[in-house]
Every structure is written in structure tokens, then in C-alpha cells.
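Hey team,

Filing this mostly as a record. A colleague (T.K.) asked me to run one chain through the structure pipeline before their review meeting, and I want the input and output archived in the tracker in case anyone asks later how it was produced. No errors, nothing strange. Just documentation.

Input sequence:
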Amino acid sequence: MKPVQGFHLITPDDLQWRPSSLMQIPNADYLERTGSKNLGARLWRLPPASANTLHRHLCAEEFYFVLEGTGRMRVGTQTLTVPRYGGVLVGPDQLRQVFNDTREDVLWLIIGAPEELELLPTAATRPDLSKIYPVDPTQLPDELEGVQWPPSTSSHSS
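Output structure:
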């Protein structure tokens, strides 16, 4: 893939926060306006008692880095605790899910490469999602037993 030419400065005011499709987790894509086809980078703010999707990737490696709070994630059958400024590198074949079983928000920076352009909303074709979500992507880890996430629209205001 062709690398980006020059550089792109991205400021906090440039970010557009939006809820993710399946799990309604607030996130902001750092690189969507840069035109990078090699690298993805996104902030994810997990509220207490929440989880992102349980998924894997077609070819992208992902680096998970905790900016605020204490990160929790499952990779395969293992549950990891990631301290602030700690990180985890996960290969494409591994099922993974970040979740928050604490009382404070957790802010993750997740960087992936190569960018899987077929997963972007602007993609011309859709990949076989059963390869990314081989099991129910909305299932929660055992640590969130009894929690309903995402919250129903009637009880969620934002």
C-alpha cells in the first residue's frame, strides 16, 4: 500500500466522537481524515460496566494502550488487567474484547495495521463477517455477568 505523503497534525478538536454500531461505545477515529490505508488508530472510552465487541481480524495486528483508568480485556481464554500506560499486542487470529468492570471510565488507544479497508463504512463490498465475529460479538465476559450492555435506548440518554 502506498504510504501517506508528508504529515497530518490531528488535534482534539478534529476528532468526531460517535457510538460504535453494535455496542454503542464512544470512539473517535484519529486517522479517518488522513487518507492512511496502512494504519488505523482509534480512541475508545469505555464507561463502567461496558464492553466492546468480541472479535478478531482478517489480517490486522492491534496494539491496545491504556491512557486512563485500568484496562481489562480478554484475549482467547485469558483475562488481562492492563495498567495505565500499559499495552497489549494481539495477532489477527485471536478473539479479543476490551471491557470495563470498574467504576471509572477507561480510555484506550487502539492502533491496528494493516488497515482493513473492507471494514470501513465507505467500503464498496462487505467481508464475510463470520470470520471477524465467529461467535456472538455482543456477548459479555464473565466479569460483567448480570449487566445489560449496550443499555436499551429507553434507559440511555446521550
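Quick notes for T.K.: The chain is about 5% helix and 30% strand. The chain has a mean pLDDT of 90.
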